[in-house]
Design brief:
heterodimer; A: alpha/beta; Rossmann fold; nine-stranded mixed sheet; two-stranded antiparallel sheet; 5 helices; 11 strands; B: about 80 residues; alpha+beta; Mth169, Chain: A; 3 strands; about 35% helix; elongated; nucleotide-binding (chain B); cytoplasm (chain B); ATP-binding (chain B)
Amino acid sequence: MKAAVILLPGLNRDRDMIAALTHVSGQAPLTIWQTETSIPDDIELIVIPGGFSYGDYLRCGAIAARMPVMQAVREKAEKGTRVIGVCNGFQILLEAGLLPGALMRNASLKFVCREVRLEVANASTVFTRGYTQGQILRCPVAHHDGNYFTDADTLADLEANNQVAFRYTAETNPNGSLNNIAGIVNRAGNVLGMMPHPENLIEAAHGGSDGRALFESALGLVDA
Amino acid sequence: MIKARVTVTLKNGVLDPQGKAIEHALGGLGFSGVNSIRQGKVFDVVLETSDRAVAEAELKAMGEKLLANTVIEDFSVEVI
């Protein structure tokens, strides 16, 4: 399966993401600059990495979400192409309306950079099938605006449709997210947004490889 | 040209940790009568048009498309 990484000014986790995808799949992903208006047909996984696109001006991800490439991402997503947004990438997907809700300033008002524990809340998505239901993962977070918020009806829908892919364990929720939400998928199940950084736990040299199964799943390297 | 102001505020029921922190800081400065503070944003916009109706329609579209995140924010438009 061929992957592409979206590049925008101010992202800073793009190299980590490219390295993770290359390591897991054995081939370097295509990189696509923000001004591109189309994404090749053979791309089956699109990843938007983390960072501080457009300096977090206005709102995190707000400007990036309105760049031309995001219209192309939207068109691919509507056709079923898999899309992952990590950290700022998650914020961009929310601002683009590809996922429901918003990410607000952390409840502590502090930037958090630490390791958390994640529970796999739904192991049947195309992104999480390499994990077992309820499995607890180690994963780093690094963000200032990761406090997931949505209205009560949308939250109830997310839960009823099993769209919460990852939750922080209650003790390690770093930002005050509703229902300890760390990552969600869209209704169709082909778009994932998450605040933690699985691309930083791929091989032993990272101190662990709990993030690897996410990319193996997304790249179709795990038996369905 | 038309000058206008777009004000973006958090919707009712949306937590505002920054507003809370400001509220506490005001208490620390001795302003004891503050019941609540909600932080928002103000955009002062100058438009080329001189048609008020056109300006209002444009500003409303700007608010919906970019200036506010309508999941968590409301906005109002005021032509000055």
